[in-house]
């Protein structure tokens, strides 16, 4: 009997022309064949990954560029909680020794991006306030861990779609993620380095998860709006001071502990994780 395998592929339009609106005088069968006498800037599509910093606007005055408070929306997001992130692989424990609360002010004034695209021209705002929120239990009995809440000051004039997606009810953009640099120690110091990396993400003989335990947060490099963060509790905070969807966060956090009885492969992402190519010991 033949084995059937399942996989997933993203079939993107890598060579396609993307435009915000097809003008009537540009027939579909002429796309890519005939160049109409039209200004591409009128198509309504801009390349945000490599913005043009040299665009000249002769009618714009310097005083027009200074934003006023009314230009911003200021939602509250849980930035990071006292949790173990990446529990299925490369688990990192931010719950010990009060290190998260001690690092809170390091997040203040950091730039906000979307999807960790930390490039000049991709910023959408900055962290304008930080505060600590103690753990609480929802009416459904879900325990939300303590963590850092942050006020996000987002330029709604420059990014109206993002602002509207955050402010709608329920929010279409609801999750946050941070890039953090930290010091850590092994959860099982008796293991040598090779054994530790071989067993990370599984349970040790003592029944405890083999993980990296954060001993100090040195800095936050940025924070980003994302589809879902590594900390499932890092969500938009509603008007009652509670995270937007605790049921989702609890289910994801609980499920991430399943299947740890057998060792699994360890991997990390150079884009998403903060494992360094150069490891320093002290």
Polypeptide structure, described:
This protein has 282 residues and is α+β, with helices and mostly antiparallel strands. It is 12% helix and 24% strand. The strands form two sheets. Strands 1, 2, 3, 4, 5, 6, 9, 10, 11 and 12 form a ten-stranded mixed sheet that branches. The radius of gyration is 23 Å and the shape is elongated. It starts with 61 loop residues before the first helix and ends in a 27-residue tail after the last helix. The model is unreliable at 4-10, 40-47 and 257-282 (pLDDT under 50).
Q: How helical, in percent, are the residues?
A: 10-25%
Tell me, briefly, the overall form: elongated
Distance between the termini: 56 Å
Fraction of residues in β-strands: 15-25%
Low-confidence stretches: 4-10, 40-47, 257-282
On the 0 to 100 scale, the average pLDDT is 81
The number of strands is: 12
Give the number of helices. Answer: 5
Element-level helix/strand string: HEEEEHEEEEEHEHEEH
What is the structural class?
alpha+beta
* Biggest sheet details: 10 strands, mixed
Rg over alpha carbons:
23 Å
């Amino acid at each position: 009997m033949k084995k059937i395998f399942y996989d997933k592929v993203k079939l993107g339009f890598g060579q396609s022309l993307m435009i915000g609106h097809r003008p009537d005088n540009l027939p579909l069968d002429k796309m890519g064949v005939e160049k109409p006498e039209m200004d591409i800037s009128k198509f309504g599509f801009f390349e945000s990954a490599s913005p043009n910093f040299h665009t000249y606007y002769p009618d714009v005055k310097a005083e027009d560029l200074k934003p006023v408070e009314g230009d911003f929306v200021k939602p509250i997001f849980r930035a990071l909680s006292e949790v173990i992130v990446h529990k299925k692989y490369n688990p990192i424990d931010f719950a010990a020794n009060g290190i998260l609360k001690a690092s809170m002010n390091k997040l203040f004034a950091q730039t906000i991006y979307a999807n960790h695209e930390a490039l000049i021209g991709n910023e959408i705002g900055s962290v304008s306030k930080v505060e600590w929120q103690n753990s609480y239990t929802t009416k459904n009995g879900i325990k939300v861990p303590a963590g850092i809440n942050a006020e996000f000051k987002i330029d709604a004039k420059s990014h109206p779609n993002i602002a509207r997606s955050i402010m709608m009810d329920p929010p279409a953009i609801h999750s946050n993620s941070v890039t953090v640099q930290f010091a850590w120690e092994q959860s099982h110091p008796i293991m040598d380095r090779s054994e530790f990396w071989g067993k990370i993400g599984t349970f040790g003989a003592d029944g405890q998860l083999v993980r990296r335990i954060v001993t100090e947060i040195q800095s936050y490099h940025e924070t980003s709006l994302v589809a879902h963060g590594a900390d499932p509790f890092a969500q938009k905070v509603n008007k009652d001071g509670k995270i937007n969807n605790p049921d989702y966060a609890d289910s994801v956090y609980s499920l991430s502990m399943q299947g740890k009885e057998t060792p699994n492969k360890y991997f990390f992402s150079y884009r998403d994780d903060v494992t360094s190519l150069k490891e320093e010991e002290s």
